[in-house]
Amino acid sequence: MGLWDVITGRSRPKPAKLDMLFAVPTAAITLETTLGLRPTGSGSVCYRAAAGAAFQQTQDEVVALLDADPGAPPVQVTRDEFGFTWLLNQHDPADVSGLCTDLHAVNTALESQGFGPGLLCSLVPFVDDTGRRVGLVYLYKQATFYPFAPRPGADRVRDNMLEIQVRDALTGELPIEQDLGRWLAVWGAPGL
Amino acid sequence: MARSRFVGDKGLTARMTLVMFLLGGLFVGLIAILIAILPPTWAPFIGVIGLGLVWFQWYQSDTVAMKAMGAREVSREQAPELHDMIERLCALADMPKPRVGIADTDLPNAFATGRSPNRSVVVVTTGILRRLDAEELEGVLAHELSHVAHRDVLVMTVASSAGIIAAMLSRGAQWGAIFGGGRRESNGAPTWVVVLVISLVTYVVSFLLLKLLSRYRELSADRAGAYLTMKPHALASALQKITGEMNQIPDRDLRASQAMNAFFIAPAVRGVSLRTLTSTHPTLEQRLEQLARIQAELGRPT
């Protein structure tokens, strides 16, 4: 915020930065070659649903658009305990760029209706042969990525070793969130 | 071109800027008069002490306010839900996460303080945690985070500098009355009487303007908070609950809190707060009206 914004006490809603999502497909290849993590084919967008009819209408249109793809299973819309909505999209695991295009369609639809500031994060889950899962999370406001790996079988414990490995593998390829305090724990995220 | 659902409030901005301009004028006027009537060696002395006080009040705002409220900082392990909620809001607003505090009092209240967004603390009372549901609490937290983003502690402290110096001077003039006695100008009243009158007038005017400014800052924080959570109705219902509950709270608590608020020359505590302090806060009606307007804009179909 600039000096004038401070004086007038006016912070505008922060717009989301969308374009970085298209860096995910190359990152997916790196993850598979270095750590054996493969995309699961699903991906989700997490946003804050605004109150009122306009948002509901926009969301219905987005869901209808994604469901129009005959090969794909229907889109799942869930609400988490913090009042954020998760829109889970299933895709062919081999086609990560197609998945990213779908996620981007969700973002642009929300943004064009003025709901861009409500976008929180996007999550693309990966899994390896031993069943370890890690989600690559994209923060819309910061335009950075970070890994989130829940430890299988444990209750709300993060696998920090795996997260660090993923971070090191992707450094240079994706803008990684440097502030570890911003690595939000998204427990119970759909698809993870 | 993406449309924006953010509507500015030009009237509020204009009124706020005018009030700040007047406060700045008051400060300049006070200093000018002091330089004119006081012996020249005094003016820099008073200026340095006054500004030192203002600086100290701003710099120490977080520790002082937390001590006064009896608040303690809580770690993630002690209050995971609160931390998670604030983290998400900060990610949404793209701001650094403040420290989190809880005050053990039944008074439903919350405040944010601290010298900068990087060193701020958001405190909620156990009373507010018990009364509000998650959605309403989030609305209140978004309001407090907006205070942090708007640097309201800094703005209010700077705005109150004329008042702080005036308060200091009136105290000094009383000392002058006791010890200085009858030293007179060539004609007219003794200098200390002139200083006392000027500083008291400055103090009263600055006090009123500050309350006005504080109300405008509250409305601004309401706006920003509502746009952040995209749920103006949640904040509205929280405000209704808090102000409604206030009438049922025993007197003892109210007095305790008022004493604490009077502790500051400038209201270093910014909070969604009580009806009894409506002088620093807009009326519930004004706040609800503004939230309803935002709600209408967010919900307008294309």
TrEMBL record, chain A:
InterPro entries: PspAB-like. It holds the Pfam family PspAB. This is GAF domain-containing protein. It comes from Nocardioides caricicola.
From TrEMBL, chain B:
The chain crosses the membrane at residues 12-36, 42-59, 153-172, 192-213. The active site is at E144. The keyword ATP-binding does not apply. Its EC number is 3.4.24.-. This is Protease HtpX homolog. Zn(2+) binds at H143, H147, E218. Its main location: membrane. The lineage of its organism: Bacteria, Bacillati, Actinomycetota, Actinomycetes, Propionibacteriales. Its cofactor is Zn(2+).
